[in-house]
Design brief:
mainly beta, 10 strands, globular
Length: 116
Amino acid sequence: MPIETYRDPIFIKWYNASEERTNEQYKVVRGKVILNEIPDEFHGVQINGFVRLKTGQVPTSANEFVVSNWSIGELTFHESKEGDFITVTKYYARGCVFYPASRIYSKISNDDVAET
């Protein structure tokens, strides 16, 4: 039986205008933080006490970070920040990515998914 319709289970809700987000706290895991929403590159991402590098650069000191992927809001930090909690002072959200629960990994063991 052919599939006549397909609805991608992952979708993005785009906002009519960018919405300001302030003081969101995240834990650095494997050198990365994923923002709750998609940041607006025009306004940037601000973290008090940190310098944002240009995309493509690598943080070489503890007070540097880079938005390594604007399309998903991925931030990369210096290895010394592993496990630290970081407060993102301000960014503007363009939209939000929605994933189905079955695609969310809640436990990883030895680099294998142990629980979804």
